[in-house]
Amino acid sequence: MNLSVTFQDNKIVSIQTINSGSTPSIYRGIEERLFPRIISSQSIHVDDITGATISSIAAKYIIQNIINENGGNADEWKMEIPKSTDVVKKYGYDVIVVGLGASGISSYLSAASNGATVFGMDSAAKIGGNGAMSAGAMAVNPRTQVALNDGNPFVNEEDIIEDWLSYTDGDAKEEIIRKIVQESGKTLDWLEKNYDFHFGEKMFAFYHPKLWPLWTTYTDKSGTDKDTAFINSMNQAAALNGKNEYMIELTAKEFLKDTDGKVVGVKAVSYDGTTYEIYGKSVILATGGFLGNEEMCQKYTGSVWQAHLWYDTV
Fold first, then answer.
1. Per-residue pLDDT tens for 128-177?
2. Strand residues in the chain grouped as ranges (E)
3. Cα separations (Å) of 184 from 42, 136, 178, 205, 274?
4. pTM for the complete prediction?
5. Within 10 A of 231 (CB to CB), how many other CB atoms are there?
6. How far apart are the C-alpha atoms of 174 and 106, rounded to whole Å?
């Protein structure tokens, strides 16, 4: 990562990217959120952008070095940023979706399509989660594609279910595996028909000797990228009802419960400290985050995957 920082009257007035050294969809949050917050607060002690933590650390490290290397003292630019103590309450939702990765977004779109009032949230500074960063979702036998194949399925569904269950040594829930295999193709067709998704050609499962043909790549209909597909589709679903809403950089903290212990909503905290209490009839947890949870990784896999960080100062 290479940055250019402009100072005027002992204030940071501009931060420009020379080279991001990062995935564009992740780095977008750095330019759109981190840099303006540093300039507004005149502090490099602002919070990292969730979903772009490594890039946030690198950017602040570089800015710190630029200050020191040009005769300043970076410690003087590490003022604490005051957090809001406001509490905002939102009522009257049919569905609250926590986590707006691929599964959470699909849940949001489905609920909105069926006339529900929906509130969605994600702790990251962007929607899409891992679904926007990697191949997926896996779709088996989309009906439209099967019809073009003279009605012949591309995959024996019982075959892939059996292999999946064998691979997981019996730890997977068969009813869930069956639902994924049997419904994923229908979901692909539904997303293409109703929202801004376009799926590419089938790909062969190179990781398996049977080379199952599956649909795993997608963009928006204009062919831009996955982020555009998610954003356009979410905005389309939100527009179905004036009450529908979704927020990013909003982290769910706990369930809200009534006196009988029934879940009636979610308490969440925004990046600026504002607490939100969102009340609704049902809550869908689609938080994912397995690889981001060291305790779970250690418990279930016996090891923790770690990324390594390299960055240069300019």
1. 988 887 766 689 999 999 999 999 999 999 999 999 898 888 788 999 99
2. 2-8, 11-19, 87-98, 118-122, 198-199, 203-204, 213-214, 218-219, 245-248, 250-257, 263-270, 275-285
3. 48, 11, 10, 16, 38
4. 0.85
5. 18
6. 22
